[in-house]
Amino acid sequence: MNQEQQIAKMVVRILDDNKENLAPEVKDRLAAARRQAVAAAIESHAHVPVGWTSIALRQRTRSAAILLGAVLLTFIVTQQLTGYVQGEHGDAFLLASELPPEAYLDQGFYSWLEQQ
User: Fold this and answer.
1) Are 95 and 101 in contact, with CB atoms under 8 Å apart?
2) DSSP class of residue 82?
3) Are 94 and 88 in contact (CB under 8 A)?
4) What InterPro entries does the database record attribute to this sequence (predicted)?
5) What is the full per-residue pLDDT of the chain (116 aa) written as tens digits?
6) Where are the domains of the chain?
7) Quick one: CA dihedral 47, 53, 59, 61, positive or negative?
8) Is residue 103 a contact partner of residue 109, using CB atoms and an 8 Å limit?
9) What's the rounded Cα separation, in Å, for the pair 33 and 80?
10) Which of 3, 37, 74, 110 has the fewest CB atoms within 10 Å, counting from its CB?
């Protein structure tokens, strides 16, 4: 509890203990100040409907989840419709070439090429 709250509780306790001894004009001023504070508090909360923040948060979360799902679904569908994977194309190229794939891995192959 911060210092302002402690002071406010102390003032309330003193006023409660001594409310019978207050002058009528002091009671009237305190009642008017209370009505003014309550009206200001109600007005400050009047612009935000009750529960609005939680509803807005749920709507934003739901919208983000739908958008993410749509992007993921689009990615999966486009991958399926392309027809081939890049790795398969590379393997087909090596297998269809005149040299076997092992020739490209052999270090002596490059020296043989230079001699030819």
Assistant:
1) yes
2) S
3) no
4) DUF3619
5) 688 888 888 888 887 777 777 788 888 888 898 889 888 877 776 665 556 667 778 888 999 999 999 999 999 888 877 765 555 566 666 667 777 767 777 777 777 777 77
6) 3-86, 87-116
7) positive
8) yes
9) 71
10) 3
- The count of residues in the chain is 116
- The backbone region for 3, taken as left when phi is positive above 0, alpha when psi lies in -120 to 50, beta otherwise, is alpha
Tokens encoding 24: 């009528």
DSSP 4-53: HHHHHHHHHHHHHHHGGGS-HHHHHHHHHHHHHHHHHHHHHHHTS-TTHH
